[in-house]
Amino acid sequence: MSHDANKFSGTEMTSFNGKTNSIITNNYASVFFFLLYTMSMLDINVANEIVPTLYIFGDSTFDVGTNNYLNSKTKANSPYYGIDFHNSFPTGRYSNGLNIADQIARRLGYKKSPPSFLDLENLQYSFKHNIMLGVNFASGGSGILRYTGYKKWGEVICLEKQVQQFALVSGNITKILGPTKAASFVSKALFLISIGSSDIFDYDRNESGVFHLGKEENLALLQLNYYTYIRKLYELGARKFGILSVPPIGCYPAVTSINGGNCVKPLNDFAVAFYKATQTLLQKLSLEFEEFEYSLGNTYAMFKAMLKDPLAFGLNDTKSACCGIGKLNGEGPCLKTLKQNHCGFGMLNEDGLLLKSLNDKLWGIRKFYKEEPCLKTLNTSLCVNHDDHLFWDWLHITERASEVIAKMVFEGGAEFVFPKNLSHLVS
């Protein structure tokens, strides 16, 4: 993409918190290396032919480093995360290498996902230039609802705030190009969203703040908020949306490791219901707005295909995580050493003891609790062949599996994408 760098290197920018930040003149080295990184992100000629820029929203499925800047308990900036990335560097991606956002970006002509919004905001000198090349707003552990993830993980950036961050980006683009050209530029961009899993997990753990709602009411609340935020993006100029639904999270190692190795049907049923509701929501938006176009990826069906016939997708192990601790490597995240003060997936209080009152409430997955606190340092188990696993850690998939998902999203038929695949959406 050939833009005049000087045109986009204004002397100040308005940050997300509303303050005006001036250039840090002694930060030339950081700026230089970050610009090199940005240029390496993009295969300029190919990307410009398919889609001019990407704006990416969601949770850990798409996060490329947002949480590195947050006071959050969920981060992927320590080994063994990133072990297959360039120089084995843990970038903040919840993967051994590239994630789904990267893999989709590659199929669109980019080398990987654009940088996180907080990466760009941290280097103000190049902010106005780099937002034209794309921005990733995704935050691990976040959800559609405002308070999703906060009780378990601490600070995460919910979808509402991600949309607010894009509003800042949109405003800067308008200042750069003028209203007419800015509207045209944003309308040609692709908006990718992958979110919802954390909302369902929080509902199951009774941590969403809406525990008094039944499943159907909670689903309706999720969709109402989802509709609001997608519509807001449309009002800000977005026209093309690539959306991924929730996978069978009841089959994740974090869940199966405490359920005798078996998937938890109620969690999977919620994921299926979420997909159907999202399908209805997007059809509604396409009827309301003539220029609204979308491709909805049925991630649930994609995962089920890999679980049913893993060898067809180059996979061997679809049950255990490649990296983790305990049963199926599903009892903790992928860290070289883990000081564990909780056992299992969100089941224990601050003293390491499961709350028995919750054990009997929520869909039967809390069958096991520990009478003694779990306070010890554990060494993480790492598989030899990263590429033959579906799951990288207790809650995330491998680079190889991400590549498979991206291929289905981009080229898949009606069983995997609705109403058209991503290649048709952007063509």
TrEMBL record:
Source species, domain of life: Eukaryota
GO annotation, biological process: lipid catabolic process
CDD domains per record: SGNH_plant_lipase_like
Name of one Pfam family that matches: Lipase_GDSL
Ribosomal protein in keyword set: no
GO MF terms held by the record: hydrolase activity, acting on ester bonds
Keyword vocabulary terms for this entry: Hydrolase, Lipid degradation, Lipid metabolism
Family: Belongs to the 'GDSL' lipolytic enzyme family.
Classification via PANTHER family: GDSL LIPASE/ACYLHYDROLASE FAMILY PROTEIN (AFU_ORTHOLOGUE AFUA_4G14700) (PTHR45648), GDSL-LIKE LIPASE_ACYLHYDROLASE (PTHR45648:SF137)
Protein name: Uncharacterized protein
Source organism (scientific name): Pisum sativum (Garden pea)
